[in-house]
Design a protein that fits this description.
It is a single chain. The chain is α/β, with parallel strands linked by helices and 907 residues long. It folds into five domains: 52 residues, no CATH class; 204 residues, Orthogonal Bundle (MetI-like fold), CATH 1.10.3720.10; 116 residues, P-loop containing nucleotide triphosphate hydrolases (Rossmann fold, 3-Layer(aba) Sandwich), CATH 3.40.50.300; 134 residues, Rossmann fold (3-Layer(aba) Sandwich); 250 residues, 3-Layer(aba) Sandwich (Rossmann fold). 45% of the residues lie in helices and 16% in strands. Helix 27 crosses helix 28.
Amino acid sequence: MIQLSPLNQRRLHYFRHNRRGWWSLWIFAVLFFISLFAEWIANDRPLLIHYQQAYYFPVLFDYTEATFGGDLDLPADYRDPYLSDLIEENGWAIWPLIPYHYGTINYNLPVPAPAPPSSENWLGTDDQGRDVLARLIYGFRLSVLFGLILTITSSIIGIIAGAIQGYLGGWVDLLFQRFIEIWSGLPVLFLIIILSSFIVPSFWWLLGIMLLFSWMALVGVVRAEFLRARNFDYIRAAQALGVSQTVIMFRHTLPNAMVATLTFLPFILNGSITTLTSLDFLGFGLPPGSPSLGELLAQGKANLQAPWLGITAFLILAILLSLLIFIGEAARDAFDPRKIIHKSPKVAKNKLIPAASVGTATPSEYATDSHTKTLQVSDLSVLFTHTSPENLAVDRVSFTLDRGQTLAIVGESGSGKSVTALSILQLLPYPLATHPQGQIRFYDTELLGASLAVLKSIRGNKISMIFQEPMTSLNPLHTIEQQVGEVLALHRGTSLAEARPRILELLTQVGLAQAEQRLQAYPHQLSGGQRQRVMIAMALANEPDLLIADEPTTALDVTIQAQILQLLKELQQKMNMGLLIITHDLNIVRRIADHVCVMQQGKIVESAPVKQLFNAPQHVYTKQLLNAEPNPKLKTTPAQGEPLLKVEQLKVWFPIKQGLLKRTVDYIRAVEQVSFQLHAGQTLGIVGESGSGKTTLALAILRLIRSEGSIIFQNRLLHKMQRAQLRPLRREMQIVFQDPFSSLSPRLSIGQIIGEGITLHRLARNKAEKEQQIIQALIEVGLDPETRHRYPHEFSGGQRQRIAIARVMALKPKLIILDEPTSALDRSVQKQVIELLQSFQQKYQLAYIFISHDLAVIRALSDQLIVMQNGQVVEQGEAQILFNHPQENYTKALLSAAFDLSVNAGE
């Protein structure tokens, strides 16, 4: 018995729970299986003949008439009464259920052809006296085989072409596009008609002609997915592992394009079948006499007095095409890990309230009386029913929020903070998430069970939300101006031109540099901090009564953090706005909040005014959070021996191209003349505002982007090596990216993500050892090894970052670049990760390049420090000296902004 992997078991489970697709597969499989044995079901030859003590199999072999006592040495006609009598006199014969081949003509019809259904011809005959049921069985098989061969072959060609186009881009993409535009413009039908006039069509001839043009159907879809995906960090992470271009294309990028591809496949298959049917209907398809559904439809049109012809052909086509569509949809959903097929939840005694149900309330029903509570949450529970066992993510949570007040919800990743926030706006996916109990009242409006009209009028208008991960929250296909302007247009009815001054005002307020030049930028052209600022601008656009901020400053540097927090406080006072902030940064809570709720495992374990909570915490978990502040590094690790990494005069310039010929008119000077040395066992901290060139420098060091200057790693000149030469060194220098969601391939399980580098660099002797290394890597970063069969979207932001760290740690490299690795982690886990990094460094003498805007973390880890601004090094040297005695004004401003956040709540 075949043992499926856990992932394939999961996919099969999802497919089976799509009942329509599951039963369609069985029905189609039975019909197709039957049609494969058409000769055994419908034939004018017996299946078995017993003649003169011998057995014959006419369905498999050809025999002459003389074999059965006839006079002629010609192929036997078993329907000839003379031969039938000879066989019956000396033996017996077993005939198929339908004693007609698709080309057999019944000359004994009681009426002229086409004859109506009868006991002899169950579905009647066509206008030539051939049995309709026999022709349907053979025609079904022919149509399906033609469609499958054409779809599979054309899809493979189209996927490869689209993958090459999208991944390589540039001139390859341009030339391919021009060729496709010309090739797709050719009149296929007229070409087939012309060729049919002097070439006799056949199955393979038609297949070849259709293949020449049908391969283009998937090129555009795959190309678009590859163009989009190649900007994600998980592609760079694979490159950093040393994965080859081909493997990246077909293991990392292609699976993420397959959902869109699978969406089209059933339509392509149906299109192939209907194309063959249409050509046969018009008379330009298969040779005359072939079993064709199209020819049967043509006969139905020509013989309206014989409705059984058209009706039976139409029904067979409708059933066939419908079954294929249902199977395709079910397969698409089964291979999409984010698409969960839900089974009705079983919750005793409690009435389930959908997380996004449609009620009967109208937009006019909610009031804005300033004397009422802005938000009241009472006994709120959230149940996720797709897990086994079912997961109560939020358990009887209650809190209130008045206008002008700030309520902070804190807790570790996975404690239920974001789920609680999403419940307020009813943004949880129904039916996966339900509310067994609870109330959420916004003024006088009950949001649980509210109508879609009410929710639409409130979302983004009266209640706005700043989401945690800006890259996945912003539309990659729309400019910044369009996305901010959409919020204003939806609720204020302003055009994009009218909204432009307001858009610029908002972007300036949130500290986006060169706001006017950024209006036409797309999300992938902005840094993580810049994308977060755009999200905040969108949330503040309509001056909401309640702002929900889910980790609003996670991706921001300390100076912008201070600006954003100050901005939120000013807007709150100006508009008397309620602010619900979700964060793991207790310094932010201390500075901005009036009241704090501490969550653990879905429950609020402590709720108190901010002063009381910080000065006299009651719950053990609260005390644990408050004691999780990273401790400053006590002494610098001395440099010993030759430097592990030596960077000299590194420069990264990005060309600005304009005009029809895309001539370079200027450069973006992302990194300018950076030099440093790093020894084994040391940590180099790099700080600076978003857009200062920190991440660009890291990518250049790993040769993931083009650069100029000298990069020497273990006395090897990386700047002179080609891609293939670098591959063996990739294991020894790794990177952890800032955005944990973007850096993990959504179509690979956690085990596959961590195990890829282990397999590539042959760190395990067998599968069992590899599995053990994956388990050990997860344990080291504080994750349950049983989660290795899950997908990235099933984890919280902090858990995803731990997975990214585990992927790197599994390789035991000598140099690790950590790009904001703790920005998505709560304080307790952050401290654990820092201690873990320190222990690894001491044990294996690892060298770190630590990029962060959290200067408390930098101070806890760094031996050396580089301060960057606008691509240039402002100040560098020993970390302790720079923290205690900064020389440059910019360094002083960073330190002031960072450690002013740690002031007491009473200030």
